[in-house]
Amino acid sequence: MFNAMRTRTLIFFRLRPVTLLHGRLRPFSTHAQTYRNVQHTQRPALWKTNLSLASATAVVGVSLGTVGTYAICDSDVTIESETGVAYEANASGGRVLAGTSARLMGGLVRVYAVGLYVSPTTTRKLFADETDKGAGELASDELFWKRFCASAEPMLRLVVVREVAGHHMCTGFERGLARAAGLRKPSAAAKKFAKLFRGLGTMKVGSVMEVECVDDTVRLIVDERFIGEVKDAELVRTICGMYLSEKAVTPNLRVDAASGIASILAGGKWN
Questions:
Q1: 81, 65 in Cβ contact below 8 A?
Q2: Cβ neighbours, 10 Å, residue 196
Q3: pLDDT in tens, 217-256
Q4: What stretch(es) of the chain map to CATH 3.50.70.10?
Q5: 199-224 as b/e, with b when 16 or more CB fall inside 10 Å?
Q6: Among 99, 209, 113, which Cα is nearest to 161's?
Q7: H-helix or E-strand containing 78?
């Protein structure tokens, strides 16, 4: 039994040998162990998050198929349910986390987790006429998502949970972007963006890719290193559509993001 003393503590519950975000943990010999003053190196990673036993809402272990994760649930951390990847509430540019999902190959193999970040200020400005809609209505409103993809300037944070070669990422983006655009083959801009992945080599478990949409430009940042950008307004819409349209490679992201966006529009936790 833990007492209620305030101490910065991380508690991990053991389910099986697992993968945790940026690396591997050995299985523990006891059911639970406590780690003090654990610092993080990259985001998302091993968390410091200023947790205390009094403020932590839950600490859980997740085991899903071949992917298991030690995960920490806190008001500032969201756990993607398919992969167990922990996402911070805030990102660059004043963006906040709206929703999460996972990219599955063949509907079975988890490749990477996806977190969608949006600007509350921009979102409320663009969709002031949608404040009366709930999450369910937004999730099924195709016109809303077309407007969102065209002008919301979101950022997608992709966290690798299965080692993948850069050229496979390139192929996956070419196919996903072509499908989102309703084309048999990807556009020249889509090919140019997808090609940025080819030079990355093998992407290890825990690698963090950020796809940032700003004005009419799509930027790719990997493990905090700028890789390149493509200037094309249609590509911005297609990148968002790849994850948020009816033909999305992450069908659950739109539903989850609708909840976060509805909260923003209603003046919720990010007000």
A1: no
A2: 22
A3: 999 999 999 999 999 999 999 999 999 998 899 979 999 9
A4: 90-271
A5: ebeebebbbbbbbbbeeeebbbbbee
A6: 113
A7: strand 77-79
